[in-house]
Design goal:
alpha/beta, 5 helices, about 35% helix, binds 1,3,4-trihydroxy-5-OXO-cyclohexanecarboxylic acid
């Protein structure tokens, strides 16, 4: 089964982001880790990244149309994009929010997720392993 893994702004630049917050993997390595975990659990992962809100909304529409399960790290859009929330709400299959860091242990503006309320659940704070845990959660949800 196909799953769509959507990564938001600045995640393609993990190579220059703070590794004490986001871990040591660059984006290519993160993609490989996601692909490997997905294959292990019987999924075919389509892993995408965009810095652009409209592009991410288009991908969420595509997932709704194709009834694809979604794992999404909306990055900074997590905290204020009602448009991404509304698009995520259209999901016709499970949708899991993930974060590398634990936003609740960081600055106050990161304590709000406008996406969490329309996700099946949120996995945050486990570094790249957050995505692996989300794949396992998807497997459990889909059965
Ligand atoms: C993030 C957390 C967000 O607050 C931040 O803006 C990001 C990454 C994470 O994966 O920890 O870009 O979503």
């Amino acid at each position: 089964m196909k799953i769509l893994v959507i990564n938001g702004p600045n995640l393609a630049r993990l190579d220059i982001r703070d590794s004490s917050i986001y871990g040591d993997l660059n984006y290519g390595e993160l993609q490989n880790l996601i692909q490997t975990a997905a294959t292990k659990h019987g999924f075919e992962a389509d892993v995408r990244q965009s810095d652009d809100e409209a592009t991410i909304i288009g991908w969420l529409h595509e997932a709704a149309d194709k009834k694809l399960p979604v794992i999404i790290n909306p990055a900074a859009f997590t905290h204020y994009s009602y448009a991404i929330r509304d698009a995520a709400e259209l999901a016709k299959a499970p949708l899991i929010e993930v974060h590398l860091s634990n936003p609740l242990s960081r600055e106050e503006f990161r304590h709000t997720s406008v996406i969490a309320g329309v996700a099946n659940g949120t996995i945050a704070g486990f570094g790249p392993n957050s995505y692996v845990l989300a794949i396992i959660a998807l497997k459990n949800l889909i059965g």
